[in-house]
Amino acid sequence: MKQFESLTGKQLSRRQLLTGSALLGGGLLATGLTGCGGAAQATTVQDIDFWHLLSGGDGIKMQAMINSANQANPGFKVHPTVLAWGPPYYTKLAMASAGGRPPEVAIMHASRVPGYAPGGLIEPWDLDLLAENGVTAENFAPRIWEKSQQNGKIFSIALDSHPFVMFYNTDVAGKAGMLESNGQLQEVSSPDEFKAMALEMQKVTKAHGLSFGYLGLGSQMWRLFYTLYKQHGAEIVLTPGQPMKADRDAAIESLEFMASLFDDTIAAKSGDINTGIAEFVRGDSGMLFSGVWELPTMKKAKLPVDAATIPTLFGTPASYADSHSFVLPRQLTVDEEKRKDVYKFVSDVLKGSLSWAEAGHIPAFQAVVQSQAYRDLTPQIHYANAADIIAYDPEAWFSGSGSDWQTYFAEHIQNVLLGRDKAAAGWDGFAARTNNLLSRPNPV
Amino acid sequence: MSSSTMSRRTNQPRTTPKPGAKAGPSLRSSSANLSGWGFAAPFLVFFLVFLIWPLISGFYMSLTGKSLTGANESIIGFANYAEAFADAGMWRSLGNTLYFTVISTVPLVLVALVMAALLNIGLPAQWLWRLSYFAPFLLASTVVSLFFTWMYNPQLGLINDFLSKLGLPKVAWLNDPNVAMWAIVIATLWWTVGFNFLLYLAAMQNIPAQHYEAASLDGAGAWRQFFSITLPQLTPTTVMIVLLQILASLKIFDQVYQMTAGGPGGSTRPVVQYIFETGFTGYRLGYSAAISYIFFGLIVLVSIMQFVITRRRSA
């Protein structure tokens, strides 16, 4: 009987629950209607979804640029979604595009476009519409505009180029007697000269001459390697179905030079990126190899810092770089009005990219680069020449920033840098891995 | 409600109750059947939509060259399986997964047992011990990974700092291929041992006190009691914990992805990460599905072996 009573009790409470749900449902319906009303009222304001992978200082700058674009254009409102850098971002973007429900506009690294454009995950930009908004080929450095193209169509609009550079502590360099009369670091042009300079700085810091965090991070290893490799005037060509074409000697020489830096005197043997940056910020080293995006960290730390492109040690000036670029992910159905607003938004951001330069990046939009305001930015102006010597990743569906290919590079090269493996063995292992990828069916 | 009354009405003429027999039971069972299905329906729908259908479509996908971009959806038979069996990367990641399973399952079971036994002795402030042993299990994998990544940091980490104070050399915890997997096992042990500990503790506290009383009357010491009463009584729990632990360890992904991303040199990349990489960052969904099914087959095999061993023991 007791059980029966309790059941009745439950039935009653269930009824109450149902009543409650009905009320709640009604409430939700009312809210929904209000929402519809809101949307109906806002028909003139287009909501534009924008995905990007810019966090930290970059994220704050991007948000400021979005805000000013939104304020200047009452006809649309851009809603950014920030996703984690690297595979998580690119996986989500690819899946959303494959499903046909991606954001209206997104940021991609220019080096990843060859993995997206042929498969139809992104759509080409309309040059006429761009021109209507004041964006034409003449607004970009030839190297950057050329990189925007795939099969003769423009698939990405570069916001910047962000090279891998050398930061240096002017106090340390000054004490080491390494500064020129103009206050900038002396030029060195060979591996031995560079190491001698680092050792002089080490005498000042008593810790290390150079900081370079690389452990466990393929992208860092690749950035420095590719800079040095390209300084040999060498190329890497990746053609599906064919083995990789590369200059093995140049690769081995670059790797051997890198490994020789990590002797716990010039640079720490076991440094990851956090350790490397922390060491430089503490003043325990005179130089840091890193991306320009670290500049806000240095400024925040009030470090006496200047920067330059990585010295040309092997004959040909070159600097690894990539570009944050705007792309149009493939939509199931394109809303032409929204798309027009996207063009307006992108052109506004490009024209306002001086604020982006403050975060360390080199703006792609030439009007900004040539402005006096940009020329007044230091140390940005000291590495602005990088835009002329930048080396993008070799093109393949599997290469580019944050790609698995960089992870595979780390798998074969980390032990070389740690002195556990010969440079030749590491390079050959990486080449074999790359050839394996090239031999497989191209999925895009 | 209306369907059950309908069925009662339609059934009524057909049921010809024998003299003296009650009509109730058959009526009750048919309506009970209906309400049974009704109760099971939400689960069945979920089961079909989220388990059976993906299982079938995943297998179909493994027979195609499907790419994330939607290209090559045509059936290519078992070519993906043939490629996977010849793929050194798959075997290596599978080997890493099995290696992790072996070296993590043993401490995860033994340490849990020791922790539960220590607590079962009757230490004071039981709640505090239970909480501190179990609390890490409640943390998210990202928190645990971040925590241990800092602890393991070669230059700034707490552990290396401690080692150098003892005059011992620093260890590249997550960057030495010989050490990285063990570093992940230590983090996993700290994080998840609490669950096994709780199962053991519950089982230990269910062993009747009379057994111990009788044993102590017979002169058995604490060790004797542990090996002759506690351990044998815990056998079903141990079997269950080992089974659950093996299956959990085989599915390792989160903490590896966050602490080493499969490195150094691919020495910690588990097969689940390999599946993720081939499918989502390498775009080859069909091939990735084929590796998933090979891994699925392995898990089924392990489960069958466990089942057979358990049955043989209990028989």
What tags apply to this protein structure?
heterodimer, A: 444 residues, alpha+beta, 7-stranded mixed sheet, 6-stranded mixed sheet, 18 helices, globular, disordered N terminus, B: 315 residues, mainly alpha
Structural notes for this entry:
The complex is a heterodimer of chains A (444) and B (315). Chain A is of the alpha+beta class. Chain A has 18 helices and 17 strands. In chain A, the strands form four sheets. In chain A, strands 8, 9, 12, 13, 14, 16 and 17 form a seven-stranded mixed beta sheet that branches. In chain A, strand 1, helix 2 and strand 2 (76-82) form a beta-alpha-beta unit. The model of chain A is unreliable at 1-42 (pLDDT under 50). In chain B, 73% of the residues lie in helices and 0% in strands. The two termini of chain B are 47 Å apart. Mean pLDDT of chain B is 87; it is low at 1-17 and 20-24. Classes of the chains: A alpha+beta (444), B mainly alpha (315).
- Distance N terminus to C terminus of chain B? 47 Å
Beta fraction of chain B:
under 5%
Shape of chain A: globular
Please summarize the sheet with the most strands of chain B: none
Which range best describes the helical content of chain B: under 10%, 10-25%, 25-40%, 40-55%, 55-70% or over 70%? Answer: over 70%
Taking all residues together, what is the mean pLDDT of chain B? Answer: 87
Q: Can you give the helix content of chain A as a percent range? A: 40-55%
Q: Average the pLDDT over all residues of chain A and give the rounded result.
A: 88
Query: Which pair of chains forms the biggest interface, and how many residues does each contribute?
Result: A-B, 35 and 29 residues
Strand content of chain A: 15-25%
Based on the structure, what is the oligomeric state of the protein chains?
A: heterodimer
